[in-house]
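User: Here's a protein and a ligand (iron/sulfur cluster). What would the complex look like?
Assistant: Let me lay out the input and then the predicted complex.
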Amino acid sequence: MSDANNQMVEKYRNNFLKEVEANVEEGDWVKMCMQCGVCAGSCPMGPYWEHPPQEIFMMIRAGKREEVLTSESMWMCTSCYNCISRCPRELPITHIMHGLAHYAKRLGIAPKNQATLRFSQKFWDNLMANGRVNELKLGIALYFLDGIVQGVKNALAATGLGLGMYKAKRLNPMEILGGHSIKDRSGLKAMIKKAQEIEEARISGNSAGNSAGNSAGNK
Ligand code: SF4
Ligand code: SF4
C-alpha cells in the first residue's frame, strides 16, 4: 500500500463516506442515492460491471473502502450519460465514477493492468510531450503495451488499417521523428500545473472542512 493510501486510511478511519465526500469529485452526492436501480438498469455496460453505480454507492456507505477503490468498475464507465439523464435524484453519477477512479489512481491502489487506466496514462503522456497528440506514437505505444512480441503481432495484425490510414492521409510516418508541437509548450505545462495546484487546494480545503466537522461532531 502507498503512503498516500495509508495516510487516508488513518485520517478517515471507519468513515469511507466522509473520505469520498472530501476527496472525490462530486462525492458529496453519494448520500443522496435512494438505491432505486435506474442507473444500473440504464447502463449499456450493465453486463460487464463487477459493481454497477448503485452498488458502488451502497458499498461506499457501508464502508467497503478497499473493495470499491481496487475495483475495475469505475474504469468501465464510457461517459454516455444515460444514468445522469434518468436518475430521479439527479446525481452526477458519471462524474462520481470518474472521480472515484481518479482518486484510486492518486492513492496508488487502482488495478494495475486495467485497460482504460493504461490507455489514459499513455494518452496523457503523449499529449503532454508536445501539447498535441502524436497519433503514430500513441498507436505504437498501445500496440507494445504488453511487450515486444505481442507488439509485433499487434502491428502485423493492423497493417491493413495502417496502410489505409496512410493512403487517406490520416497517418504520417514522419511523426515518428517527433511530430508537430504547439507553439507554447511551457505555457501549457504552466497552465496544467496551476490547475493541479488549484485542485489540490480544493481537496485540502474540503478535507480540512470535513476534519473540523468531524471533530465538532465528536464533541
Ligand atoms: S438512479 Fe440515482 S437514485 Fe437511483 S440508484 Fe442510481 S444513483 Fe441512486
Ligand atoms: S455514464 Fe457510465 S455509469 Fe452512466 S450509464 Fe453511461 S457507462 Fe453507465
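Summary: The radius of gyration is 21 Å.
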